[in-house]
Amino acid sequence: MNNIDWSQLRKAEDIKAETEASRLAPLIAAETQWAEQERKFAGEQLEAIEDGESVAGTEREWRDYRTQVRAWKLGAAGYPDSNLRPARPI
Fold it and tell me: Is the residue at 13 inside a domain?
């Protein structure tokens, strides 16, 4: 008689993937929060430009930055390494 439930068998590759997902989860959460804050900030900069205020960077640079931040998500090159985030216009 066999008492092993083979449906519960976990493969090494599955365990490795679960471990990697657990390791990345806090990094992904931090990057998601950062991206939300940056999208809001970029929107505020664009609004200031529309109102004629002086800000660092041009309207085009802020729009491009906002697009880059929006693309900063799982699957993006370097994600979720915070050192590789898009850089704000100067």
Answer: no
